[in-house]
Amino acid sequence: MTTFNRSNFIPVKTSVEGQFLDLLSARYLNLREKIKDHTRFMVTQSEEGRPDIISKRAYDTEELWWVICQYNGVVNPILDIIPGMVVLIPNYSALTQVLSESKNKTNSRIGTRTTI
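RESULT FIELD:
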């Protein structure tokens, strides 16, 4: 399985306060616009606050939990993912294609440190 760790898609910046992830420059911000094909998934009690478990069930890996959160506009999964909630799961083939293209286009920029 291809590795699509979230840190590969978010630049790290350094300021006087320390290092931080530049979420506004992340390459995956428009996944919902790029991937129209998805399935609906109802969150169970055991999956409450656990996008990693949903990712494992949908994609057979916990690694794509961040995709599920981003695709559904979830900022705080612990509070936002509740039983009975319907989340949209992007089609895996379309997702890997979009992430691969994004990773290849910005590979030299993402993961590098920028001082501000």
